[in-house]
Amino acid sequence: MNYLSKMKGTTKSPPMVNVSEVIWSWFGAFVGISAVAYINFNVLAGTGLIMMIASFGASAVLIFGAIKSPLAQPRNLVGGHVLSALIGVACYKIFWAQPWLASSVAVATVIALMHLTKTLHPPAGATALIAIIGDDKIHSLGFTYAVLPVGIGVMILLLVALLFNNIARNRRYPEFWV
Question: Looking at residues 103-122, what average pLDDT do you find?
Answer without folding.
Answer: 98
